[in-house]
Amino acid sequence: MSEDINKNKQNEVSESATIKSERSSSGDQKESKKASADNTKQIVIDFERVTKQYPGEIKAVDNISFKIGIGEFVSLVGPSGAGKSTLIRMLTREELPSSGRIYVAGRDITTLLPRDLPYYRRKVGIIFQDFKLLPKKTVFENIAFALEVAGVDNASINERVAKITEIVGLTKRIKAMSEELSGGEKQRVSIARALVHNPKILIADEPTGNLDPVTTWEIIELLFKINRQGTIVLLATHDKEVVDALQRRVITMRDGKIVGDAQHGKYIL
Ligand code: ADP
């Protein structure tokens, strides 16, 4: 494993990551206090007794509670069917829990209105195993798209895309078509796209599933770099080698429940 990862300190957080509630109504302030009251490290993600039951008997997520604080890098592991994707879909508000509360930066996201969702989702970037890039578009266009949709002006788009492309190490490939890229480069584009709105949280859902071991480590290094700059990283993965080498917090799920939560964990099924 590279020195860079070893040197990384868990609480190395840039000031820019200070979480501020976007709203200042008294209700939201109350929620903010609640979320930070019981921990010295500022809590950003707080699942409280969350259950998701799909029609039928199966509880995909079964009464789980956990908190993730500012600056953390957390692996989420567990066998297929354990409930990891359901948990992620609730965090991105693609699904609502059947019961329980989910606070993100002090706001209960289960009560967000449809009109709030685009703003909320800008604060939660996500990347996938299959990259989900726009075909027939360049690296620049793939990254710029997320900003265009948000109504950002062209000058700001150019500036932001240049900066984020540099962070992910793709400046020289900015004009390349997405289908010409290697797997590692594609994942870098998808990371850049996930970061354009400067999210508080980056969810990586099996990000290295399609990559060879060397490229896998390059992408993990990049996730560490982003984490060091203040973004929480939640890494759902089946890659035992990666999880064991990370020496970071590991939350293990099975049958919808959290069966392990270790600060310097290993991948144990
Ligand atoms: P994982 O991501 O850990 O593989 P999932 O969250 O996909 O687990 O699934 C957890 C359980 O919930 C499984 O039993 C799965 O079949 C069930 N499940 C997931 N999504 C749905 C759905 N949309 N409708 C019904 N059951 C679902």
Largest sheet: 6 strands, mixed
Q: How much helix is in the residues?
A: 25-40%
Strand fraction: 15-25%
List unreliable stretches of 5+ residues: 1-39
Which molecules are bound besides the chains?
Answer: adenosine-5'-diphosphate
For the largest sheet, list the strands in their spatial order: 6-7-8-3-9-10
User: How many helical elements?
Assistant: 9
Any idea what the shape is? globular
The rounded Rg comes to 18 Å
Order of helices and strands: HHEEEHEEHEHHHEHEHEE
Look at the helices and sheets and give the structural class. alpha/beta
- Mean pLDDT, all residues: 87
Care to count the β-strands? Answer: 10
Distance between the termini: 23 Å
Kindly describe this structure.
With 269 residues, the protein is of the alpha/beta class. The protein contains 9 helices and 10 strands. The chain has helices at residues 3-7, 26-37, 84-91, 117-122, 139-149, 154-167, 183-195, 213-228, 240-246; strands at residues 43-53, 59-69, 73-77, 99-104, 107-108, 124-128, 201-205, 232-236, 249-254, 257-262. The protein has a 6-stranded mixed β-sheet with strand order 6-7-8-3-9-10, sandwiched between helices. A 4-stranded antiparallel β-sheet has the order 2-1-4-5, with helices on both faces. β1 (43-53) and β2 (59-69) form a beta hairpin. α5 (139-149) packs parallel to α7 (183-195) and α7 (183-195) runs parallel beside α8. Residues 1-39 have low confidence and may be disordered. The chain binds adenosine-5'-diphosphate. Adenosine-5'-diphosphate is lined by residues 54, 58, 60, 78, 80-86.
